[in-house]
Structure to design on (655 residues):
């Protein structure tokens, strides 16, 4: 490989030496792609787009770019175009080749030319565009700069020719087009929704940037493409309003803070709503820090301290019989904490927890001052918030008692397992699975069909409680929910944090929701998922929650029969079994419920690890998951209708 490159540009003295290094770098990326972009599945695939977009966002944050266009091309190539300054194309002295080529082929070379601005954005892995290049079967970069345009193409990261000038141009900017390498990625098809939700988030986090997403795979009747534009002038204020779109606000406008200290930029927006859930989303350099960190700690500290001292001073807590705690100030709170930090230190299991200690103080001071000012200036709003806080403290007391009841029962009554649970014989959680089954009758079939060595069955009675609308103590009093807690061996709440989850005694590492393949079944699945998302989020984040996929049809002709999971499959099988003859001899059975299958069929199609398909539940974005659940399961009807209408067109055929 080294000879190839050396021959190409022998006139540059250092060219071959630096190129060998480059190739080794890119080779490392191709050998261990997961180390650089997280994984080689659907997530990693989308990550490629974020890596490229982040460069354009950086250019925008430096004040040189206003528009970013992301396009999914018909063959699932991606084009990212911006109107920034264009990547420099002049000779890079040390490397002996064009700066553009260096940016595109050297690991971490991205921001090195511009010492004045630090790279603020950067996907989770922040590896830069050269990684995307290494993982693309083909990539083209086009630069429009100084009245001229330049181009270079690459195959799996290797330049096909030196950067060439291709003509004059009155445009200014960079265009990167790439096709992911099918020999590396397990997936190649992009999801419009997934890209849209990240780009929407980026638009809110970086106000003033216009981001357009176009899907050329999806042509409208008039010949135009499916397209959405994301632009936010209000930034986090609008983000909070968007997140709370289906909740009833407590105060008329979100509280908003923007400031900086020691090179750290801090922005916070928060709103209180009439619900009971806490939704604090945090970002560092546009990365969603799901594990929190010092910025969140600073925010919480300022919130508790400022509210507590204002409440004491104004005698809001006098009639309260219990001590007020931090939790009480966060019920019905939706907040976004976004910081931009020059050298972020990421810690934690998923490297999404900010470690920089100096950030805590910066956030605490900047946010605390503004919050205090807000309370002093807006006594009416302050009163609304404090009435809610006092209620929250009272309810917390009730919830804690209810929660302790569940856990005491779990710990002391003969192993504490629910009577309805048909447990498996294995005691190894890693090897064990539990099926949460809709209804006693399907539960019975599943009990007969299962492999009792490692599969447990817990039948759930009909529609479980909608936790999105219920107060916390009601949730711990609900029979089906109590059963889930005790069967799973999951404890919730500690002295310090009422929502903390203890998974150390988790009894099954696969939790499979198995409901009928009809409207009611989907509703029940959604109710159960809402419960897991709000009360056992860690379990979902660990990838332990799955949805079973029972077949929709059995197509039969004589002795031949085949199960089908969607209409397209069904039609193909009918065609095949009819063998060119009449389709009337072919018999199609539509399964509406699990109950229509016998134990053997249920095992064979839905439960047997050798033949079944499970859908693993992953949280792509905490913010968009929150929107989905609050809109679908919350109180307000109009946003729900809008959501369903907007998504109906794109719902899967087999959903
Ligand atoms: C470094 C320096 C300069 C521009 C960029 C990077 C740049 C990179 C990307 C990646 C995607 N779009 C981009 N746009 C710009 C320019 C420095 C100068 O012109 O003085």
């Amino acid at each position: 490989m080294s000879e190839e490159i050396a021959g190409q540009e022998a006139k540059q003295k250092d060219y071959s030496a630096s190129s060998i290094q480059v190739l080794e770098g890119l080779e490392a990326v191709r050998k261990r792609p997961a180390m650089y972009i997280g994984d080689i599945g659907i997530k990693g695939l989308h990550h490629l787009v974020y890596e490229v977009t982040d460069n354009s966002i950086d250019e925008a944050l430096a004040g040189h770019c206003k528009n970013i266009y992301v396009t999914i091309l018909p063959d699932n190539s991606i084009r990212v175009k911006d109107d920034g300054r264009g990547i420099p194309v002049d000779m890079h002295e040390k490397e002996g080749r064009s700066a553009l080529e260096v940016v595109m082929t050297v690991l971490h070379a991205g921001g090195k030319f511009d010492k004045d601005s630090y790279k603020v954005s950067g996907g989770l892995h922040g590896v830069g565009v050269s990684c995307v290049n290494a993982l693309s079967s083909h990539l083209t970069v086009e630069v429009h700069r100084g009245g001229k345009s330049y181009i270079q193409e690459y195959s799996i990261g290797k330049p096909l020719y030196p950067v060439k000038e291709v003509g004059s141009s009155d445009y200014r900017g960079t265009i990167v087009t790439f096709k992911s390498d099918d020999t590396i990625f397990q997936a190649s098809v992009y999801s419009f929704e997934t890209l849209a939700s990240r780009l929407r988030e980026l638009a809110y986090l970086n106000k003033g940037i216009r981001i357009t997403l176009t899907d050329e795979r999806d042509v409208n009747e008039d010949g135009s493409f499916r397209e959405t534009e994301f632009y936010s002038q209000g930034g986090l204020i609008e983000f909070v309003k968007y997140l709370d779109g289906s909740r009833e606000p407590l105060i008329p406008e979100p509280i908003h803070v923007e400031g900086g200290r020691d090179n750290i930029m801090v922005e916070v927006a928060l709103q209180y709503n009439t619900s009971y859930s806490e939704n604090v989303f945090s970002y560092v350099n546009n990365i969603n820090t799901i594990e929190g960190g010092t910025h969140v700690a600073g925010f919480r500290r300022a919130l508790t301290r400022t509210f507590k001292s204002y409440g004491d001073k104004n005698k809001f807590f006098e009639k309260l019989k219990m001590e007020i705690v931090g939790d009480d100030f966060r019920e019905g709170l939706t907040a976004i904490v976004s910081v931009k930090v020059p050298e972020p230190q990421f810690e934690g299991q998923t490297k999404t927890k900010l470690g920089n200690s100096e950030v805590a103080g910066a956030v605490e001071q900047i946010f605390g001052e503004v919050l205090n000012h807000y309370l002093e200036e807006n006594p009416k709003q302050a009163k609304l918030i404090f009435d809610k806080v006092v209620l929250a403290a009272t309810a917390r007391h009730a919830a804690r008692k209810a929660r302790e009841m569940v856990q005491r029962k779990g710990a002391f009554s003969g192993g504490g397992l629910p009577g309805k649970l048909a447990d498996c014989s294995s005691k190894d959680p890693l090897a064990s699975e539990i099926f949460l089954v809709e209804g006693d009758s399907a539960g019975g079939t599943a009990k007969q069909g299962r492999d009792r060595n490692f599969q447990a069955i817990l039948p759930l009675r009909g529609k479980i409680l909608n936790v999105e609308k219920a107060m916390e103590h009601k949730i711990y009093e609900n029979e089906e929910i109590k059963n889930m807690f005790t069967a799973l061996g999951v404890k919730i709440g500690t002295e310090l944090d009422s929502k903390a989850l203890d998974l150390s005694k988790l009894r099954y590492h696969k939790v499979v929701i198995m409901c009928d393949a009809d409207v009611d079944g989907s509703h029940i699945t959604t109710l159960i998922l809402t419960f897991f998302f709000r009360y056992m989020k860690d379990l979902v984040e660990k990838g332990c929650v799955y949805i079973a996929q029972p077949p929709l049809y059995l197509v039969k002709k004589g002795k031949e029969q085949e199960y089908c999971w969607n209409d397209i499959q069904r039609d193909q099988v009918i065609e095949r079994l009819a063998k060119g003859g009449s389709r009337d001899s072919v018999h199609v059975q539509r399964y509406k419920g699990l109950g229509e299958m016998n134990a053997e069929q249920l095992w064979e199609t839905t439960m047997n690890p050798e033949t079944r398909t499970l859908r693993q539940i992953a949280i792509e974005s905490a913010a968009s998951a929150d929107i989905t659940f609050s809109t679908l399961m919350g109180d307000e009807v109009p946003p729900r209708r809008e959501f369903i209408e907007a998504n109906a067109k794109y719902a899967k055929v087999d959903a």
The CA atoms of residues 140 and 153 lie 4 Å apart. Residues 379-412 form the longest helix (34 residues). Residues 55-56, 59, 82, 84-88, 113-114, 174 surround 0RA (CB under 6 Å). The mean pLDDT is 88.
